[in-house]
Input
Amino acid sequence: MSKYTQKERGGLYELTDAARAELIDSKYYNKDLSPTSLSERNWSTYHIAALWIGMSVCLPSFAMASSLVGLGLSPWLAVLNVALGNVIVLVPIQMNSHAGTKYGIPFPVFARMTFGAVGAHIPALSRAITACGWNAIQSWIGGAAIVSLIAVFVPSFKDLDSAQYIGFFLFLAAVCLVAARGAHAIRLLEAISAPVLIALTVGLFVWSLMLANGGGFGFADVIRAKTNYGLVADNGGLLYVFLGGLTANIAFWATMALNIPDFSRYAVNQKAQFRGQLYGMPLAMTVCAFVGAFFAQATSLVGIVNADGSPVFDPTVALNHLPYPALTFIVAIGVLVATITTDIAANVVAPANGFSNISPKRISYAFGVVISCVIAVLYQPWNIFGGAAAYIFDWLNVYGGILAPIAAIFIADYYVVKKRNVDVRALYQGTEGRYWYRSGWNLRAIVAWVCGFILPTLGGTVLKGNVPLSWISANGYIIGFIIGFAVYVLLMKSESASLISDEEAAAITER
Output
């Protein structure tokens, strides 16, 4: 066969037809995991921005700021916390996007380059299992909207003990059906839904403002509310809550910082993926933060609070206080659209690809979707989404500390170790490829990952009462990221087998 195994055009690479034919029988290759061809890379800046708006405008995004208000922060401090966290996490997201766009490879295949063909199951499954938890949370929220929707026609339905569980399973079934249709169905849904999601955000803000006005409070009364230092002290103090919230906001997109190649591989070029994410995510999340914080403070001022008197953080509470059935119907539809677009793009695609990567010849992408939805049920989301502190410290911060070093290791490997040179065919070759390492495992990556997550995870789970470790956990994403990056670069100094020089890259690329 020709020495050329990949072609380059405008800085984008694709496998040659001969190279694809050679890989057909490889157990590490199937249609769903194959690199996109240049003709398949047709997502514009708008499509990528719409994708991020669709993922960002959702009830858990509103809950990021409202939960911080629930822990005692002022609305403006909560908004600042969310905005800062999302600017920080955009850095690893953008950096890991590059390989997906340049080479057209999905996340599980991208992971093989760093962890080895077998070791790639660790980051893929870590991300997949975390996403299944998010799928559970989103489906629980979407289920609440379904309950409200049905209750418009059958008011007694919402009083059933099983109503929320019925809504949960109905929503999860809808997610499974839509996600199984693949990337093109997702792109269409995201493009259509973006304006609807913006309208939903405006609607929640207007309702909150009207609620405050009805209680005798104006716009200024809500936004000028001060930090509740007594409530903050009960949750560990101002600095602890702020840093914990910052880590939580970074961790909110920790999963996407890993599997962003699943989407960036469809971008028409690097500018489209960069601008689409820059325009679509930080601004949308900051707007959601403002609305979420305003909602939490407004409901608190008029006496809609939790049993312990703290501000509510779950925006689905609004559905129970809307004055007209027709309005409830419209808002519930909006919540369903907002939730399903976020859930599928952020929490179903990656697990499906991750499970397919375990055995590409036996597990298709569609079967992977079914597996991810089944695992979501096992998470019991009624516990995960049970309160502001549980949401911030027990869920977001813990899994963020586990995933942060993986994102760092990917960046260190792609930019520092391999200098953005990738032999795409070798990613699918198994034992014959340069990324096989030792029996399919890059043990250096495993060691760097463990070094990065061990302290933050211990501080958030096993040794939760230990004050120093609790502070490490509150800053777990950044600490784990730095440790993982540094350890990996140091360990890989003696590795040369997986590297590809500029000259060798040119020798295998047809231009």
Summary: The first strand starts at residue 6 and ends at 9. The chain has a mean pLDDT of 87.
